Amino acid sequence: MRPIKMLLVIMSACCIGFAACNTKSPESKKVTTAIADSSKVQRFGMVTGLKPEKMEYYKKLHANAWPGVLKKIKESNIRNYSIYIQKIEGKYFLFSYFEYVGTDFKGDMAKMAADTTTQRWWKETDPTQTPLPEAKAQKQQWQNMEQVFHTN
């Protein structure tokens, strides 16, 4: 199986497994209720490479995510945010999933990008990543993925 196809299969399994796991959590029911009250939820799946020599540092950063970064994520109307690591054919990839529950995605992302704490965080995380060619061409760290399936 080609690496990208394999990555997509794994990511699909992660999404389905992630959704199934969250339905059992009392906390996820609160999130689901809050999202159901929103006019429209936008779901995002993204992927980037991870430098193997930086993996432990990346995990350590996220095990102790900075409170200011977490606060800005919530203020930016991002909910249900997860990041996964997967090794495929000797290379490591990060897969992220989040739900946006606001009404001005571009505006909220601009506010997040302008936040000095978030900028410092990205100075720590960006050097650990290897953007995919499509993302790199657009000067982005993460490549957006097309959603092909969703169920609640």
Task: Provide the fold topology.
Layout: H1 3-22, H2 26-37, E1 42-50, H3 55-63, H4 67-75, E2 78-88, E3 91-100, H5 105-114, H6 116-125, E4 129-130, H7 133-137, E5 143-144
Antiparallel strand pairs: 1-3, 1-4, 1-5, 2-3
GO molecular function, one term: racemase and epimerase activity, acting on carbohydrates and derivatives
Protein name: L-rhamnose mutarotase
InterPro entries: Dimeric_a/b-barrel (IPR011008), Rham/fucose_mutarotase (IPR008000)
* Whole-angstrom Rg: 16 Å
Q: What would you call the structural class?
A: alpha+beta
Low-confidence stretches: 1-36
What is the typical, i.e. mean, pLDDT?
Answer: 83
Provide the CATH architecture.
2-Layer Sandwich
DSSP strand tally: 5
